[in-house]
Design brief:
Oligomer: single chain
Number of strands: 2
Strand content: under 5%
Length: 216
Amino acid sequence: GRKWQNRFNWEFDRYRPVAFTVYNGKTRKLKAEYNRIEMPTDPMKEGELEQTAILGGGDPFSPTQPVKPGVLSAVPGGLEAAVPESVAGRRTALAEWIASPENSLTARVMANRVWVWHFGKGLAGNPNNFGSTGKKPTHPELLDWLASELVANGWSIKHLHRVILKSEAWMRSADYPDAKLLAEKDPERVLHAAFEPRRLTAEEIRDSMLAVSGEW
């Protein structure tokens, strides 16, 4: 039992940088199988860059085909990015690819999340899954327009808030003149014919209580 616990601890510390995907530096030389490998304080001074490979069955001890640094090839649109093989510049290249105005996925995901903050649910069903397994957007044209509006205004979240909060969809009453007709035509309440109240978060409840009591 202790042997496998030691192995688990070793694997956890060894592949912690990979799990968090924030560390691309050099690793200290492995001295023993179960020695813990800590992240060096200055990754540029010691160790060597390891060859990244596709892991067979997801097993970190079964590397197969070597791969070079790059961006997600599964993302549609064909937006390329030159990610250097050296440590320097990797994160910068990845950040520029993610925040590129030509990368519509980033803007659409962000616009959908802002919409969720106000309406309780997104234009695309699952804000955490924008892939083929997620729900398709109920209003794809609106989502694309909000994404383009976000990019055109320098990725300003404040501007996007203003656009949404000044829209008719946001300012509509929660009461619809014919509730029965609305239930028949829009049982999922995705057409925004009436505003659908949402549950407040703990922070919003606190702020509301302070505002009502005059202590805000």
